[in-house]
Amino acid sequence: MSEKKRIGIAGLGTVGAQVVARLLAGAVPGAVVTAVSARDAKRDRGVDLSAQRFVANPLDLAAAEDVDVVVELMGGEGGAALELVQAALRAGKPVVTANKAMLAAHAEGLSDLSCVSPPVPLAFEAAVAGGIPVIKALREGMAGNEISRLSGILNGTCNYILSRMEVAKLSFEEALKEAQEKGFAEADPFLDVSGTDAGQKLVILSALGFGVAPNMAHVSITGIEQIAAQDISFAASFDSVIRLVAMAERRAETGGVFHQVMPMLVKKPASLAQVGNELNALKIEAEPVGSIFLQGPGAGGGATASAVLADISDIVQGFGRALFSKPTSAMKESASPKPPASEYYLRLALADKPGSMAKATQILAENGVSIEEVVQRSSQAGDRFLPVVFITHHCENSALRAALEALQSQQDICNEVLALPVFAEEM
Amino acid sequence: MSEKKRIGIAGLGTVGAQVVARLLAGAVPGAVVTAVSARDAKRDRGVDLSAQRFVANPLDLAAAEDVDVVVELMGGEGGAALELVQAALRAGKPVVTANKAMLAAHAEGLSDLSCVSPPVPLAFEAAVAGGIPVIKALREGMAGNEISRLSGILNGTCNYILSRMEVAKLSFEEALKEAQEKGFAEADPFLDVSGTDAGQKLVILSALGFGVAPNMAHVSITGIEQIAAQDISFAASFDSVIRLVAMAERRAETGGVFHQVMPMLVKKPASLAQVGNELNALKIEAEPVGSIFLQGPGAGGGATASAVLADISDIVQGFGRALFSKPTSAMKESASPKPPASEYYLRLALADKPGSMAKATQILAENGVSIEEVVQRSSQAGDRFLPVVFITHHCENSALRAALEALQSQQDICNEVLALPVFAEEM
Predict the structure, then answer these.
(1) B51's torsion region: left (phi>0), alpha (psi -120 to 50) or beta?
(2) Are strands B257-267 and B335-336 parallel, antiparallel or unpaired?
(3) Which of B18, B144, B303 sits opposite A309 (nearest CB)?
(4) Contact A85/A114 with Cβ under 8 angstroms?
(5) Which run of H or E residues covers position B18?
(6) The Cα angle at residue A278 between residues A276 and A280, in degrees rounded to 5
(7) Do B297 and A313 touch (CB under 8 A)?
(8) pLDDT tens-digit map of B59-99
(9) CB A303 within 8 A of CB B289
(10) pLDDT at residue B176, as a whole number
(11) pLDDT band at A328 (very low <50, low <70, confident <90, very high)
(12) Distance, CA of A372 to chain centre
């Protein structure tokens, strides 16, 4: 065995501390931790760091003579994390990061620094789906395939909330509170529940699967804040659940790749419907392989540390790879703004008076939206508006939007609308 | 890009023809097919081979000056396939193979030829679980983890038969016949239904996950021939299904790794119970990652070709790896003959006369096997023996075997016994 690679780690939170502890225990034979950096040098992290050099300024790891590989676990889209990664790549030092926000926002600059000759590896397995080796499966395991669709549950916080609303009949607010208490959601849950975090992961996967340069502006993002307990209950009456699905799909007719993060109705036999609680999952549809499904823990110290260790192992064995294999400027695939046709779950609040239903269905029909199933629940005395749910046949998104606009202009008949696409198990 | 790697392919069956067609279509940018070998040079395989050199004797690919990488898709445990792979490795040429029988039987010799300095890559993603990148996930994606258990559905033929018995209420024989008609089972189904094929795949996974040198003698193998329609139906009454589970488990108490291929009762919420028809799946339990689940097509031309293309892609990019990373002689982990304690599904044929049940339950109790649930179905007039099913509490395998022996010695009371372990979702 040649000399061990010397690892410098910036960020000693839950993940960083676990990575260091396992490296010290010999989890990756070819790696030795020589230097660490964190805000607070003195904090007890349950790991003996007396043999490691403590570096006050993380940026110094890039230039340090006793560091061959830089591991960035500080987080943050820009700032010190970005500066460190850029400096390390410029110094020709391989980098391991778990930072999806940084990769989604700065893919162009980082791929330029990584895809030089010879390439400087920039590994990021931990950035998407935590401990599930989705980067490896997609980039390497599916090499030689043509990917047609990626559909994933990429945010454990949202999946936990939706699962608890389903299983324990909680409201969104109650489920969010429980997720926060259990450590599955941040004090400020915006990045998670808004779908932003899942969108960042999706553009990274899309770069690998389709060769579309990451760009958050390509992703149509809707969060789960608008999902009510009644939607979970209506979904169940269609033998379905609601999942926040991150989806990238090659559009054969219009060209380009459509990107969307959105709560969707998922029929229960589908793999994605089986993904419960804080788990993550990714379904890869490709030719010639068919459909591959991966599931596991998408967050947490152990899962994320596992992915970081895998990246370190690859790099110390000489198997590190450049970010996205080529600069984003060389990626030719385009993003498509046009959503695919879909069935939809439509929840309308209809006025409890004669003719409302007739008028609503007429407006849908006039706009080319035809109805497959309807569920209406009995009214509570005094409710002026009652929820009615339709499952539509396949229709174009433009037709649906026109229908919804027409419905919402009739405020005396319909005062609220929620439309969720139905996940198509097969493309 | 440096010069393209020249690929020589031996074996042009369903998989080989697909691999060639996709390489010709540019599926792996750094690879070009220069030579092919097959029994019949003239057969129409739906792919234009006019630009490739046809080699009558596959062994010649190893020495050929126009071949950098040898792809072995002939199959067979020894013979020409083994000779070709050995000769190619000796010549320092990387090899890609889908041949699990060969790897399981000749791991020692092949690892010695591959694990030299510098290593000669021997890639085998297609040998286990077809298109699912389980080799990559386990060897690379889980690097740095300590694996505690691997449990997989690794034979699509058996899973198809068991699924059809369950869903379409077929007998074993009817389901086997259907599998043969659909091309999911060979004319001689022995290697599949006996569990041998799954065992070969399991020892390969165990070498990667646990560092146990492959040895088929380590694996306790039971096929699915003895599973009757009534077992599927009894399983359903326990909200369970029957799956042929290939399992390798680290035994903390006794040391070593236990290997078993056996039909097991799997509770329906478990991931493995969701794996239907000809699909394959692997569950990896490890520390710190937790539990990872992978599912996809385990056989068929497209799935296997996908895995072969992935291996070729790794090799042409310089990311090929030696077989098992080290010679089997350097593997130190031992196999354990002792099965873990388990709950069991016991089906007894009990005499339809007073006292039989009392006697049977007494024998179980005397041997330390305690009962959790019982199901007895109403009798058909004239049956002298009636099926009774017990689910036991956790018990040692030795206790169970003693109990079964004692039961079977009482031929007037009990004339048939089937015992299946219950799959424990968590270790």
Answers:
(1) alpha
(2) parallel
(3) B144
(4) no
(5) helix B14-24
(6) 80
(7) no
(8) 999 999 999 999 999 999 999 999 999 999 999 999 999 99
(9) yes
(10) 96
(11) very high
(12) 31
- Determine which one of A93, A100, A201, A283 is catalytic: A201
B86 by Cβ neighbours in 10 Å (0-12 / 13-18 / 19+) ranks as middle
Does residue A317 have a pLDDT over 90? yes
Are A310 and B274 within 8 A, CB to CB? no
Token reading at A413: 């008949």
pLDDT band of residue B254 (cuts 50, 70, 90) is: confident
What residues in B contact A288, CB-CB < 8 Å? 18, 22, 301-303, 305-306
Q: Which two tokens stand for residue A381?
A: 């005395």
- Segment A200-223, tens digit of pLDDT: 999 999 999 999 999 999 999 999
Contacts of A295 in chain B (CB under 8 A): 271, 292-295
Q: Which H or E run contains A414? A: strand A414-421
**pLDDT confidence tier of residue B381, bands split at 50, 70 and 90:** low
Q: What is the pLDDT of residues A60-113, one digit of tens each?
A: 999 999 999 999 999 999 999 999 999 999 999 999 999 999 999 999 999 999
Give residue B399's identity as a one-letter amino acid code: A
Inter-residue contact A267 to A240 (CB < 8 Å): yes
How does DSSP assign A26-50, residue by residue?
TSSTTEEEEEEE-S-SS---SS--T
Q: Which residues of B touch A (CB under 8 A)?
A: 18, 22, 27-28, 125, 131-133, 136-137, 140-145, 271, 274, 286-297, 300-303, 305-307, 309-310, 312-314, 319, 321
Write the pLDDT tens digit of every residue in A134-160.
999 999 999 999 999 999 999 999 999
- Count the alpha carbons within 13 Å of B350 in the hemisphere toward its beta carbon: 24
Q: Considering the entire predicted model, what is its pTM?
A: 0.96
Six-digit token string for A308:
């970081």
How close B290 comes to chain A (CA, Å)?
A: 7
Kindly list the domain boundaries of chain A, sorted by start residue.
Answer: 5-127, 134-296, 344-421
CA of residue B151 relative to chain centroid, distance: 10
Q: Is the dihedral of CA A126, A131, A134, A137 positive or negative?
A: positive
For the segment(s) A134-296, the CATH number from 3.40.630.190, 3.30.360.10, 3.30.2060.10, 3.40.50.2300 is: 3.30.360.10
Structure tokens at A227: 């999902």
Q: Quote the CATH superfamily of domain B134-297.
A: Dihydrodipicolinate Reductase; domain 2 (3.30.360.10)
**Could you tell me the CATH superfamily of domain A5-127?**
NAD(P)-binding Rossmann-like Domain (3.40.50.720)
CATH number at A344-421: 3.30.70.260
E strands, B80-230, in order: 95-97, 122-123, 146-153, 219-221
Question: How crowded is residue B423: how many other Cβ atoms within 10 Å of its Cβ?
Answer: 23
Q: Is B136 a catalytic residue?
A: no
Q: What is the mean pLDDT of chain A?
A: 95
Q: Which long-range contacts (CB under 8 A, 24 or more apart) does A422-425 make?
A: A422/A240, A422/A264, A422/A265, A422/A266, A422/A267, A422/A342, A422/A343, A422/A344, A422/A345, A422/A391, A423/A151, A423/A243, A423/A245, A423/A264, A423/A265, A423/A266, A423/A267, A423/A270, A423/A272, A424/A342, A424/A343, A425/A267, A425/A269, A425/A270
Bridge partner residues of B281 (DSSP): B153, B295
**Ordered alpha helix ranges (H), B261-396:** 301-316, 356-366
Q: What sign results for the dihedral spanned by CA atoms B379, B380, B384, B386?
A: negative
Report residue A90 as tokens: 């410029």
For residue A268 the two structure tokens come to: 């229960």
**DSSP calls for A357-396:** HHHHHHHHHHTT--EEEEEEPPPPTT-SEEEEEEEEPSB-
Minimal-distance CA residue of chain A relative to B146: A27
Identify from B293, B304, B309, B312 which residue to disrupt to test chain A contact, counting A C-beta atoms within 10 A and taking the largest count: B293
